[in-house]
């Protein structure tokens, strides 16, 4: 069971969630499919893969090689704060680049929600080991429901899979004794509320 929990913790690592979020939001929302053709989504996804997965992972592996990180799961407070800062920096660069691409407000609001969530996690981590995994997955679910409020479209099978994923990753983090239940729960709440508000009202700057 521990090995399975480690697998889920890796597959649903927070570094991967923004790409999952954008893909699932696009697939589940016909409005987004209408205003952003598939041909335009390809460079958007390529930018996401490079900036929000490849570059952060290279940074994490380098810091692990240097002994700053002991694990990709960022167990200590110092590791988590450094990791969140790295994620925030690369996501901020992506947000700025997206502004130059003149993407619709719905997509911009999703990334603003991610940036706000990362900033909140950075400050909360000084006092409380909030779960990054459930924060990310809570945000994914909040984004799906927020877009539903904004556009009136929702693929319930995708929402069900997202809820299942949240349950699996929350159970995995608890089984690995990486977090207490309160840390897992508050993570999910933080991610959900932030992404829901931003996506439901198409907030961006």
Q: What proportion strand?
A: under 5%
The low-confidence runs, each spanning 5 or more residues with pLDDT under 50, are none
**CA-CA gap between termini:** 44 Å
What is the general shape?
globular
Roughly what is the average pLDDT, rounded to an integer?
Answer: 93
The number of domains is 1
**Share of helix among residues?**
over 70%
User: Structural class given helices, strands, pairing?
Assistant: mainly alpha
DSSP summary, beta strand count: 0
Number of helices: 9
Order of helices and strands: HHHHHHHHH
Largest sheet: none
- Radius of gyration, in Å, reads 16 Å
Structural overview:
It is a single chain. By secondary structure, the protein is an all-alpha fold. The chain has one domain (2-200). 78% of the residues lie in helices and 0% in strands. The protein has 9 helices and no strands. It has helices spanning 2-11, 17-28, 30-35, 38-65, 77-100, 105-124, 132-151, 156-175, 181-200. The longest helix has 28 residues, at 38-65. It starts with a helix and ends in a 5-residue tail after the last helix.
Task: Give the helices and strands, then pairings.
Elements: H1 2-11, H2 17-28, H3 30-35, H4 38-65, H5 77-100, H6 105-124, H7 132-151, H8 156-175, H9 181-200
Quick structural gist:
This protein is mainly alpha-helical and about 200 residues long. The chain has helices spanning about 1-10, 15-30, 30-35, 40-65, 75-100, 105-125, 130-150, 155-175, 180-200. It has one domain.
